[in-house]
Design brief:
- With 231 residues, the protein is of the alpha/beta class.
- The protein has a single domain, classed as Glutaconate Coenzyme A-transferase, CATH 3.40.1080.10.
- Helix content is 22%, strand content 27%.
- It has six helices and eleven strands.
- Strands 1, 2, 3, 4, 8, 9, 10 and 11 form an eight-stranded mixed β-sheet that branches.
- Helix 4 links the parallel strand 3 and strand 4.
- The longest helix has 13 residues.
- The relative contact order is 0.19.
- It holds the Pfam family CoA_trans.
- InterPro entries: 3-oxoacid_CoA-transf_A (IPR012792), CoA_trans_fam_I (IPR004165), NagB/RpiA_transferase-like (IPR037171).
- This is CoA transferase subunit A.
Length: 231
């Protein structure tokens, strides 16, 4: 099966309006920059986006918010995006804020085929509204459902023609689970290498999970908030 496509536009060509999309990365680290730009160009709308963050005003998912292509955000951290805040407060954007560990585990469970799990996170808060609660060993837990997506889009450091992926450092936090939780998984990589070049012991996501792969270009790799300490 030939999984290599020419570019981001070819990779996302069949994503329709109203699709549910997972986008990997942690903050602005390891986000699929090329595919986000392609989604903006394609102009699809009413998207449900599952991501650790909502980008910033002029980068990452902030670009899709700016063009009003996102109908609903499911995230754990959204504090750096003024346009996100404006759309939320004006009622233009539906938002599901999810504790970060719960978000990561819901995605992981979807990739493992486990429909639900119990967690203490959120018990006694608004997050618990409408959810099943059970007691285990004297402690209360919420039932959370697995979180799959129509498409999962991730960015890796290296990948081969079979779709095997290698990530670097923090970029693994959500992307490795998301790659297994999408019905269709798209990977953009900094370096696309020939089959056999990746050490099997260093592969983080096996190619069986990846449906399309391409080598990206012109990555900015922005820092969300730079802090300088003077000693």
């Amino acid at each position: 099966m030939n999984k290599v496509v020419a570019n981001a536009d070819a990779a996302i060509h069949d994503i329709p309006d109203s699709a549910t999309i997972m986008l990997g990365g942690f903050g602005l680290c390891g986000i699929p920059e090329n595919c986000i730009a392609a989604l903006v160009r394609k102009g699809i709308k009413d998207l449900t986006c599952i991501s650790n963050n909502a980008g910033v005003d002029d980068f990452g998912l902030g670009l899709l918010l700016k063009t009003r292509q996102i109908r609903k955000m499911m995230s754990s951290y959204v504090g750096e995006n003024a346009e996100f805040e404006r759309q939320l407060l004006s009622g233009e954007l539906e938002v599901d804020l999810i504790p970060q560990g719960t978000l990561a585990t819901r995605i992981q469970m979807a990739g493992m085929g486990i429909p639900a799990f119990f967690t203490p996170a959120g018990y006694g808060t608004e997050i618990a509204n409408g959810k099943e609660v059970r007691e285990f060993n004297g402690k209360m837990y919420l039932m959370e459902q697995a979180l799959p997506a129509d498409f999962a889009i991730v960015k890796a450091w290296k990948g081969d023609h079979s779709g095997n992926l290698v990530f670097r450092k923090t970029t693994r936090n959500f992307s490795t689970s998301m790659a297994k939780a999408g019905t269709i998984t798209i990977a953009e990589v900094e370096h696309l290498v020939a089959p056999g070049e990746l050490d099997p012991d260093h592969i983080h996501v096996a190619g069986i999970y990846v449906h399309r792969i391409f080598e990206g270009k012109e990555y900015e790799k922005r820092i969300e908030r730079r802090t300088v300490q003077i000693s």
